[in-house]
Structures are given as C-alpha cells and as structure tokens.
Amino acid sequence: MNIEHLRLFMRIANTHNISQAGQELGLSPAVASAHINKLESELGTRLIHRTTRKVSLTEDGQAFLPHAEDVLASVEAAQAAIGLGNNSPSGTLRITAPASFGRMHLMPHMGDFMRAHPQLNVDCRLSDSIVDMVEGGFDIAIRNAALHSSNLIARKLSSDQRLLCASPSYIKQWGEPQSPQELQKHQCLLLSGLDTWQFESEQGHINVKAKGKFRTDNGEALREACVQGLGITINSRWSANEYLKSGALVEVLKNYPLVSNTAIWAVYPSSRQLAPKVRAFIDYFAAVYSKQAF
Q1: Which residues span the domain enclosing 49?
Q2: DSSP letters for 236-286
Q3: pLDDT tens for residues 29-82?
Q4: Could you report the per-residue pLDDT of 157-200, keeping only the tens digit for each?
Q5: In 3D, which of 72, 56, 24 has the Cα closest to residue 275?
C-alpha cells in the first residue's frame, strides 16, 4: 500500500475535494484521482462518493480512515526515531474527554495548543460515556476515574481529589453532618453508579449508602443542584473549586476524607512508538495541569 496514497486519502477526507487535496500535495487533479482509484483497487472497495460538487467518504471509507491515520502515525514515528521526516505534530488528533472536565479544563487551553501546532487538526468529542478507543478511532482519552488493567497506556495528568459539598443555604436549613453516619438523615445528591460513599476514619473505612431525591449522570448538573441547596454531594475539586472560593459551596465532613484512587489520566492505545501528535498533546496538557491546583 502506497503511503502517499494514504496521505492523499486523508487530505480528501478533510477537504472533501480531490483537486484541492491533490494540489496541497503537489498533484494534478488527474494524478490525484488516479491515486485514489489505485488505492480503492488495492483495497477492493470504494472509499469515496464522487459528485460534481464534492466528495464524501463511504461507509468503508469512514471505517478505513482511522486505520490509515494509524499507519501514517507509525511511519512518522519510525522516521522520527532515526532522525528522518517531519517530527512536527500533523494530521488529525482525535480526543475524547468527560463532558464537564472537557468544557472546564480542556477547551480553555485548546486555542493555545492548536496555535502551537498549526499543522494539527483536532476532533474533540465530549461525553460522559466511556468509549472504546480502538473502535472509535480515538488517539487519546481523558479519564477521571480509577484505571483498570487493559491494553491501554496511561499517563497521569493531575490528581482528582473528591470531596463532600453543600450550599450554605442547605446547611442553614438542615444543619451540617458531623459524621458520615449522619448523612442518612440528609438529602444526598447522587451521581449515577456512585451510591456508596466511603470515608476514612481513625477506626477504618466507613461505608454509607447514600440516598436522596436527585440523581444525574453529569458532574456539572450535580454541582449545580448542590449550589441550589438540594442536598449534599460528592464533587471533584477541579469542578467545585471556584464555587468553594466564592462561598457558593462549602466543604463538609473535612475530618472524614473520601476514599478515592481516581486521577486525571491521558490514555492511549499501546504502541512501540508514540505518534508526535499524541506526545505533543500529553506533554502540553501535563505542563498546564502541573501549574493548576485542582
């Protein structure tokens, strides 16, 4: 399979125009069209739909695109290992991140990151669902959870301290719990899948089955419900910090830290050589978060 044919296919996927993609790579429209025909012939399938106005990827073309990018990333990494080729990040970097963290702590820095790497395109998907990176064709996933063994490599970007919060209005109306056991008398705001809250104490771990009238699958929604005085909840410091500083939220049960082994991780599929675009992203955001106090 010709590497230049793959480069052309990736440019067509971005520009939706064979002539423009060919021109960017120094090819005439006729030669560019011939290259794509050759690639489709080698693969035995049609990769693009051609119309008089533009082209679009077929279903097979969409499925083939992330694999083509992986091949080119491997080639670039191999060239970089022996000092050849362009070691600057290029191509499309596909990222998935939790919705709340992505909006609050990823997107504010995305402009500077992309200006630092002008040859890079970024496809960023924000979702609280845990996606299959390989199946979804993602280069990097940001995760704020405890990691389990897998075929992925992880680099810690920051700690993820969990704490218990309430609004001053809630405390004024219902009082402040003095022990984890007293939470049974309070309204607890629940994050889906996190009903059992575990605390550290001098006597060992204390488990509390949290109960309440409000449940959500989104951290920002949980924090806002807490700000509105609907109850007590667990929140990450990176999410609640500004509200704690302003006084909109207060920390409760400070003497009983939550048991948690979560952190902010950048995970990526294992490979012997790390693509320049992936390394650039991880190094940049690791440096950014090292200067922030979550």
Answers
A1: 3-81
A2: EHHHHHHHHHHTSSEEE-TTSPBP---EEEEEEE--SS--HHHHHHHHHHH
A3: 899 999 999 999 999 999 999 876 778 899 999 899 888 887 877 776 666 655
A4: 888 889 999 999 999 999 999 999 999 999 999 988 888 999 99
A5: 72
- Taking the CA atoms of residue 18, residue 135, residue 288 and residue 87 in that order, the dihedral angle to the nearest 10 degrees is -50
Indicate the pTM of the whole model. 0.66
Question: 5: which 2 tokens?
Answer: 């044919």
For residues 183 and 186, give the distance between their C-alpha atoms in angstroms, rounded to a whole number.
5
CATH code at 245?
A: 3.40.190.290
Number of domains in the chain: 3
Assign residue 45 the CATH number of its domain. Answer: 1.10.10.10
Q: Please indicate, yes or no, if residue 86 is contained in any of the structural domains.
A: no
Residue at token pair 């992505």: 102
Q: Check if the beta carbon of residue 234 is closer than 8 Å to that of residue 260.
A: no
Q: Which residues contact 284 (CB under 8 A, 6 or more apart)?
A: 109, 113, 116
Residue with tokens 């695109």: 65
Contacts (Cβ under 8 Å, ≥6 apart) of 136: 94, 96
Provide CB contacts within 8 A for 163, sequence distance 6+: 234, 235, 236, 237, 240, 251, 257, 258
Rounded distance, CA 3 to CA 173, Å? 67
Same domain, 166 and 224: yes
Does 50 share its domain with 117? Answer: no
